Amino acid sequence: MSTRSEKNLLRCGPKYIGKGVPREVGLKVIAEAIVANCQLQELSGCLRWQGGKFVNGYGQKQFQGKRCRVHRLVYEAAHGPIPEKMAVCHTCDVRDCCNIDHLWLGTWQDNAIDMAAKGRHVRSPERLTHCPIGHAYADNARYTKDGARACRVCQRAAQRKRAGWPEELWWIPPQPIGHRPPQLSIKHGWSPPKSTSTSEDRKP
């Protein structure tokens, strides 16, 4: 590595990993930056990437002029170069997870077999009766105008997430009309029910 590249790497850290930086050196720097930008899920042990993502849900990071999947960068930094036509798979099935203990190397066929064994294949019986999270369509299905099937529970959680609700309230079932959970405020989308009584009804 040239002296200029060394100085830039020391000064800028992961923001500068140019062509003059050897790949193995740059990978260690970028892997540390990736892990630092992850959030630990205590129950599953997943390190969820908090940066940008591809449309399919995999985390992405710019590395030496290319957009790369972050879990592949972390795996390569720990275990060395990834052989051609090999996939870095997740034991946890969480696409943005970067926990090195949750990653394993296999062929695309190995990944497909693992997906089918866990009931995640699009043609598996579980996918026909349950949503990807595991909610039964028999109780929670709704159909769109074009005939597509969706899960009410997952859609409600997504709407609450976009509205700024706290994460612990995303999955709670709907409450009876007029019931206000103590931790839920008007800021999170709650509004008092409208009274249907008139002034005549309130007269003694």
Describe this structure in words.
The radius of gyration is 24 Å and the shape is globular. The protein has helices at 3-12, 23-36, 70-79, 108-117, 125-129, 137-140, 152-162, 199-202, and strands spanning 38-40, 47-49, 60-63, 66-69, 87-90, 103-106, 141-143, 149-151. The protein has two domains: 3-117, Homing Intron 3 (I-Ppo) Encoded Endonuclease, Chain A (Alpha-Beta Complex), CATH 3.90.75; 130-186, no CATH class. It is α+β, with helices and mostly antiparallel strands and 204 residues long. The strands form four sheets. A two-stranded antiparallel sheet has the order 1-2. The chain has a two-stranded antiparallel sheet with strand order 3-4.
Please give the structural blueprint.
Layout: H1 3-12, H2 23-36, E1 38-40, E2 47-49, E3 60-63, E4 66-69, H3 70-79, E5 87-90, E6 103-106, H4 108-117, H5 125-129, H6 137-140, E7 141-143, E8 149-151, H7 152-162, H8 199-202
Antiparallel strand pairs: 1-2, 3-4, 5-6, 7-8
Helix pairs in contact: 2-3
